[in-house]
Specification:
Endonuclease III, domain 1, 2% strand
């Protein structure tokens, strides 16, 4: 009788089905699409002080409230819409985080003008290819790196808000600038070749 092989995943994702799906299909996949980068920047800046699980559960609410993460539309959100968003239970109702997303959309487009795309800009911080880390356990995972420190500092200089080094390192992990899947995780090699 053949034994079934259990799929080994990074343990942080085992809390609920949406987390597993996110881990199995998105986390660590290299992203070159500016809209997706903007989506993750909005979600990650909203996460400050909260769990990623909370944000994932509100992702559809954010997609609806933030014009499917169209940064050109978000950059033009008027104050009256900010007041509407503060009443929207589908997102994190925090004035500073909402205003940061609008501010960051404007800064995002300035980066695009300078570098041709936000993707060109951000991938420059890792030499244009994903950093492949070797992690035997979650204890070895870092919260920040020299690359995330430099990127966060540069973003701050460019006027971005709610995007410190820890948040930016999470962005780098999520969008595949860094492959931090554990060595034992089935996704480790899959994202490496995408």
């Amino acid at each position: 009788m053949e034994k079934s092989v259990e799929t080994i995943r990074c343990p942080w994702c085992l809390g609920f089905p949406e987390y597993v799906q996110y881990h199995d299909t998105e986390w660590g996949v290299p992203v070159y699409d500016d809209r997706i980068h903007f989506e993750f920047l909005v979600l990650e800046s909203a996460q400050a002080g909260l769990s990623w699980a909370t944000i994932l559960k509100k992702r559809e609410g954010y997609r609806r409230a933030f014009a499917d993460f169209d940064y050109q539309v978000v950059a033009e959100f008027p104050e009256s819409y900010v007041q509407e968003l503060l009443q929207d239970p589908g997102i994190i109702r925090n004035t500073l985080k909402i205003k940061a997303a609008i501010n960051n959309a404007r800064c995002f487009m300035k980066v695009q003008e300078e570098f041709g795309s936000f993707s060109n800009y951000i991938w420059g911080f890792v030499g244009g290819k994903p950093i492949q880390n070797s992690l035997a356990s979650m204890k070895e995972a870092k919260a920040t790196t020299p690359e995330s420190d430099r990127l966060a500092k540069d973003l701050k200089k460019r006027g971005f808000k709610f995007l410190g080094s820890t948040t930016i390192y999470a962005h780098m992990q999520a969008t595949g600038l860094v492959n931090d899947h554990l060595d034992s995780c089935f996704r480790k090699n899959e994202v490496k070749i995408q």
